[in-house]
């Protein structure tokens, strides 16, 4: 499975939107970059689905553009005007060449899902490798209305417990990708979240 970050050239704030190419070409999050549909079209003319980790604006702002251009199925936990398929905790979804399990991971967002296969984690914002606050294991912010550090900690624990031992590729909503011992990155993020200290000095 080849994974392309189709928002890598963005000049304004967006999430990482990942195009997984394989038996089933799937976009994980749509991002908030104008022209993202054109970047997707550079890699495939057969986008089958968009799978949303959650519906914060930086993850879904470009969804209308992508759907209008490619008419893919849209998978999401929470209702959305463009959703065609509902996903719940434990559901299976085909992304690229692999079968992924949806893991419900609220705390940063009430509708957050992470997607894990035998080898790969699309973690959205629940856990990231590096994001300016921490390197090698950080976690989604929980200082805004409707967010909860305690719920996020439970979600990271759930993700850790459901993640196969062989996961070695991590594609997070922000920061860089990571290839190696993903479980250790997740456990590091969990340890930091459990300290319950502000993620950013101004929180």
Automatic annotation (TrEMBL):
Entry-linked SMART domains: Lactamase_B
- CC cofactor: Zn(2+)
Instruction: Indicate yes or no for the key word Glycoprotein.
Output: no
SUPFAM superfamilies recorded: Metallo-hydrolase/oxidoreductase
What keywords would UniProt list here?
Answer: Hydrolase, Metal-binding, Zinc
Entry superkingdom: Archaea
The record's Pfam families line, in alphabetical order, gives: Lactamase_B
List the residue ranges forming a coiled coil, or say none. none
Please list the GO terms describing molecular function: hydrolase activity; metal ion binding
Query: What residue stretches are annotated with the Metallo-beta-lactamase domain?
Result: 14-174
Put simply, this protein is called Hydroxyacylglutathione hydrolase
Q: What is the lineage of its organism?
A: Archaea, Methanobacteriati, Methanobacteriota, Stenosarchaea group, Halobacteria
């Amino acid at each position: 499975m080849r994974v392309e970050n189709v928002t890598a050239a963005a000049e304004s704030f967006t999430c990482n939107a990942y195009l997984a190419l394989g038996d089933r070409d799937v976009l994980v999050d749509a991002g908030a970059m104008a022209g993202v549909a054109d970047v997707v079209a550079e890699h495939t003319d057969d986008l089958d689905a968009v799978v949303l980790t959650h519906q914060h604006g930086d993850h879904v702002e470009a969804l209308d553009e992508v759907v209008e251009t490619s008419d893919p199925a849209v998978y999401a936990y929470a209702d959305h005007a463009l959703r065609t398929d509902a996903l719940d905790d434990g559901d299976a979804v085909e992304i690229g060449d692999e079968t992924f399990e949806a893991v419900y991971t609220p705390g940063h967002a009430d509708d957050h899902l992470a997607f894990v296969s035998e080898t790969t984690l699309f973690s959205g914002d629940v856990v990231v490798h590096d994001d300016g606050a921490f390197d090698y294991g950080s976690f989604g912010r929980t200082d805004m209305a409707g967010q909860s550090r305690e719920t996020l900690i439970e979600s990271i624990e759930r993700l850790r417990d459901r993640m196969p031992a062989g996961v070695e590729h991590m594609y997070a909503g922000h920061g860089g990708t990571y290839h190696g011992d993903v479980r250790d990155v997740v456990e590091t993020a969990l340890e930091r979240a459990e300290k319950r200290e502000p993620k950013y000095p101004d929180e």
